[in-house]
Amino acid sequence: MKVTVDFEECLKDSPRFRAALEEVEGDVTELELKLDKLVKLCIAMIDTGKAFCMANKQFMNGIRDLAQYSCKDALVETNLTKFSDTLQEMINYHNILFDQTQRSIKAQLQTFVKEDIKKFKDAKKQFEKVSEEKENALVKNAQVQRNKQHEVEEATNILTATRKCFRHIALDYVLQINVLQSKRRSEILKSMLSFMYAHLTFFHQGYDLFSELGPYMKDLGAQLDQLAVDAAKEKRDMEQKHSTIQQKDYSGDDTKLEYNVDAANGIVMEGYLFKRASNAFKTWNRRWFSIQNNQLVYQKKFKDNPTVVVEDLRLCTVKHCEDIERRFCFEVVSPTKSCMLQADSEKLRQAWIKAVQTSIATAYREKGDESEKQEKKSSPSTGSLESGSETKEKLLKGESALQRVQCIPGNAACCDCGLADPRWASINLGITLCIECSGIHRSLGVHFSKVRSLTLDSWEPELLKLMCELGNDVINRIYEAKLEKVGVKKPQPGSQRQEKEAYIKAKYVERKFVEKQPAAAVSPLESGTKVIPQSWEEKRHSAPEKSLLAVEQGAASPKVIVILPKTVRSSDSGIQQSVDDSREHLASTVSVNSLYEPEGDKQESSVFCDSRQLSPGLHLYRAAFEKNLPDMAEALAHGAEVNWVNMEENKATPLIQAVRGGSLVTCEFLLQNGANVNIRDMKGRGPLHHATVLGHTGYLVVPEYDNSYWQVCLFLKRGANQHATDEDGKDPLSIAVEAANADIVTLLRLARMNEEMRESEGLYGQPGDEIYQDIFRDFSQMASNNPEKLNRFQQSDSQKP
């Protein structure tokens, strides 16, 4: 209830004024009680909400424990982990809601009670005091006798001063009353509006989160329906098998025990036999025997390690034993010992004897093949992997990723609103975001922004390096170039969500603040002018021991003189060849791309000029080779097609140029922004072909450390088709084999084996074997943290000229 007090009535000090004061004072007292009660209820709600979050977190941890327990069931583990991560996000949103509630309701209303109502109470005390003094002065003035002139004058002066003071205090009191009555409305509604906006944000974030989860849940529901159908079918099959087995007669004489020397699991035959101990008592014990890997072994329990009876069946014989009292016995004799065994029937004894004899014959036949297999097994599959004693480095995640990314200029605050300590990132833009802006970025779609948590998600090394190459300052110089010109005000951390959402859409979707490019001049590609890339010219002077570039004016294409290392490792014998021997097999001048193009069909070299004169597609194409991520981001902001095709250079794409430039981070940036890993050039070669070709480390024309191993690993992880062939009918594996590049051959063969294994087991869309994933993770970690281990052919200091 709003009650105002008139200033005129205050000067009169009329009964109406006193009645109004009494009404206001009662109303304020009741208001204070209501606000105190509301604050206490808010505190109780916040405490209860935090307890709910704590219980919810414990429940989420229980789901994660169940997921870890179900690690052998990929479907259960993957889905439970996905759901627990989503619940963790909701817990974070709840905590944010409770923090906002505490600021908007508890803190704001408590401030109103402690400051504004307290001022009202202080003013009331002063008014009551001066009002009492005024009453006393009036009474004293009335009581003075007429004939006492001195007392009359003194009482009159006191009354005048008291009335003047009363009017000032009364006017101040009335002012405080009216201000309080006016402010109470705004303070109460402001706090409630903030509280409701907090709820709006909470439910919007939850809606966005579960909207992304919706298709995933729908797919899971379809899988569960199929699982139910499969389970019902399996149940019927099991019931039918159960009925069939019940009808059979399993007497000891009718038991059949077959053997198979070509069994997939390597076990030729297995079953129970009695074994006579070699101790003094000659006791007989029943054990589970099996013939596997040309050995005769047994075990007491399934979890026990098998005990080897015969190391090599080629060195033993088997015979019947009729000179002991027990029936169905046979003996396996090796050069060092003999083993007496007993079957349950004559038929089983004959089956075991025949199985041993057949295994002996098979072992002799496979002796040569086994030796070759042992040699292959003993040789290292890849020289880039370390021994098992060296611990595997895990993916950077959590606080490590947060600290590294926030060290980049501008990343300590949200790229779009400036809120400090952002915990989210857009991996294709290379920026950091606060939680509210990250929710808005999610709503834009992954074709505009791919959001990932800096603390909750795992970070691959190449992705972390990509984040460190860009940053908020770089991206804002591009996407906010015209911000001041258009007169748009950038949102602040406290701005409303609608304001932030409109700004972010204008910035990234509509690109209203990107500086327009001037009209493109005639491209050197169109005019035929040949320009030497500046980066190559700098590298020519900085690394003379690796390559030397000499451009001939008027030639069909720039010529590159390749200075070979003093020693080149042979792919077969490992011997060292001299530079002179190597030069006999390599022409002294080759074009930039002649290492992987037939003679007579060499392409023109990439021609670059000022980026302001290039079309966005050509700008992206040039920057991809120069490994200039800020320029690439600028080209995309200007509308460059990430899969742009350069018709002047064999229909090469920016991703192929990134491979030629030798940068893995550049490739990762293009892939994160939607580059197709399987688009091929005019000669039928995709990025995987080019990365494999550039694995000729000893002959690289790009005078830079060789990233081809990591690029091959990256493209295989991103679904590159390794079966695609170029115009010469060669796939990447054939090229790597011809180049004798052991590491790339190993990666391609492992990927092919993993693909075949997934197809044979029906695991379409699944990552496949864990060992395969571990090896690829090792390659990524090594290329990120120990790149020198992959640079096999790098010259030593003693070899450098």
From TrEMBL:
GO MF entries: GTPase activator activity; zinc ion binding
Record note on domains: The BAR domain mediates homodimerization, it can neither bind membrane nor impart curvature, but instead requires the neighboring PH domain to achieve these functions.
Annotated coiled-coil segments of the chain: 117-147
InterPro entries: ACAP1/2/3-like, AH/BAR_dom_sf, Ankyrin_rpt, Ankyrin_rpt-contain_sf, ARFGAP/RecO, ArfGAP_dom, ArfGAP_dom_sf, BAR_dom
Localisation per UniProt entry: Cell membrane; Endosome membrane
Organism per entry: Callipepla squamata (Scaled quail)
Compositionally biased spans, kind Low complexity: 379-388
PH domain: residues covered: 266-361
Signal peptide start and end residues: none
Database matches in CDD domains: ArfGap_ACAP2 (cd08851), BAR_ACAP2 (cd07638), PH_ACAP (cd13250)
Boundaries of every Arf-GAP domain copy: 399-521
Mapped ANK repeat ranges: 650-682
Region of interest called Disordered, as start-end residue ranges on this chain: 365-390
Membrane topology qualifier: Peripheral membrane protein
Gene Ontology CC annotation, any one: endosome membrane
Bias kind Basic and acidic residues: ranges: 365-378
SUPFAM superfamilies referenced in this protein's UniProt entry, alphabetically: Ankyrin repeat, ArfGap/RecO-like zinc finger, BAR/IMD domain-like, PH domain-like
Domain of life, source organism: Eukaryota
UniProt keyword terms in alphabetical order: ANK repeat, Cell membrane, Coiled coil, Endosome, GTPase activation, Membrane, Metal-binding, Repeat, Zinc, Zinc-finger
Regulation: GAP activity stimulated by phosphatidylinositol 4,5-bisphosphate (PIP2) and phosphatidic acid.
Role, per record: GTPase-activating protein for the ADP ribosylation factor family.
The protein's name: Arf-GAP with coiled-coil, ANK repeat and PH domain-containing protein
